[in-house]
Design goal:
By secondary structure, the chain is α+β, with helices and mostly antiparallel strands. The protein is 25% helix and 34% strand. Strand 3 and strand 4 form a beta hairpin.
Length: 199
């Protein structure tokens, strides 16, 4: 994985990545328990497919965009948020969504996986044991241990201010498409309170 990540960094340097240099490696790689009254959602990206495409993660509750972070291949973001119902958008070349209902004091895990042929990435809940992507899989430990925890860098706010109008248009287009999914498809893309773990 390290060799592939090195190749990815070269591609970014050549201008083929889309992350805009807004993220940096966290000073500690430990995922801390959420602050009092908060929940943490860990977004992980491991697939080599479309590895040179940057993924922008946003919380989009009621259409108001809040920047979570840029997620490169081999990275993870630990995003702290308030409990309750949420919407999240992942945007590569196309956009896709995940719903969430999270509880305070819990840490949740999401695998951000590429959609073949679309340039989009699907944020998919990792459940305890009852889905295709679950914490009982041997791969889950690798997803957590073999990804680098990154945090927003000093230029994040200015980057997002410039990018936000474009992302708002992306949101309008793809959120309308997400509404056409079946109840079963939406359930697969919903992070439930019981999917979290207490640390």
């Amino acid at each position: 994985m390290r060799k592939v990540k090195l190749l990815f960094l070269v591609l970014v340097t050549l201008g083929l990545g889309a992350c805009g240099g807004t993220m940096m490696k966290a000073p500690t790689q430990q995922i801390k328990p959420p602050s009092s009254g908060k929940a943490t959602i860990v977004f992980m990206r491991t697939s080599f497919v479309a590895g040179a495409i940057g993924v922008e993660m946003l919380e989009t509750t009621k259409g108001d965009l809040k920047f979570v972070g840029n997620l490169a291949m081999g990275d993870k973001i630990a995003y702290e948020t308030t409990p309750g119902k949420k919407e999240f958008m992942a945007y590569g070349i196309a956009a896709d969504f995940m719903l969430a209902n999270v509880e305070a004091g819990k840490t949740y895990y999401v695998i951000v996986r590429p959609n073949w042929g679309t340039g989009g990435f699907a944020p998919t809940p990792v459940r305890h044991s009852t889905s295709k992507y679950n914490m009982a899989m041997p791969e889950f430990k690798e997803w957590v241990s073999d990804t680098d925890l990154v945090i927003p860098g000093p230029d994040t706010a200015s980057w997002f201010a410039e990018k936000k109008p474009e992302l708002e248009e992306v949101y309008k287009e793809y959120w309308a498409r997400f509404q056409t999914k079946t109840p079963e498809q939406i359930a697969e893309r919903t992070l439930n309170p019981e999917d979290g773990v207490s640390k």
